[in-house]
Amino acid sequence: MQDLFWQLKNTDSFTIYTTLLFVAIVAWFIREIIGSSGLALSSVPLLIIGGLLGPAFFNRQMIALSYDKNANAVTATALGILAMLLVILLSKWLVTLLNEHRVSRIKPVSIPSRAPRLRR
After folding, report:
1. In Å, what is the CA distance from 114 to each residue of 44, 108, 117?
2. Comparing C-alpha atoms, which of 70, 76, 61 is closest to residue 3?
3. What are the C-alpha distances in Å from 17 to residues 2, 4, 75?
């Protein structure tokens, strides 16, 4: 775990700037497609984490996607953001599925439309 923290500490500025650029583009797409600024803003920290963990994972596993260092950083960042976007999508789907299951177990109760009249 400490190796991961040291590796994240030594992340170069190019990777950080590309991560921020990709996260801004993805957050803008989320806001435009879904129409929810709150969801876009709440997903930004997770997308940044995914964008920084992508190159760290590829460096740790010694996977080189390209011979160029900058192209490798960009593709690893994009794949990390896409992986985190998939995690966000799956968690949102799971929460929706659990809410539907919870609501389907509730038995509807009939409510009379008007109160019965008292007879004298």
Report:
1. 50, 18, 9
2. 61
3. 24, 20, 13
Q: Where are the alpha helices (DSSP H) in the chain?
A: 2-9, 13-34, 37-60, 69-104
Q: Which two tokens stand for residue 19?
A: 């991560």
* Structure tokens given for 90: 């799956």
Backbone angles phi, psi at 42, to 5 degrees: -75, -20
Calculated CA dihedral for residues 39, 41, 43, 44, nearest 10 degrees: 160
Q: Which residue has the tokens 């957050």?
A: 27
Rounded CA-CA distance 60/54 in Å is: 10
From first to last of the 120 residues of the chain, give the pLDDT tens digit.
Answer: 666 666 667 778 888 899 999 999 999 999 999 888 998 999 999 999 999 999 989 988 999 988 998 999 999 999 999 999 999 999 999 999 999 998 888 777 777 777 767 776
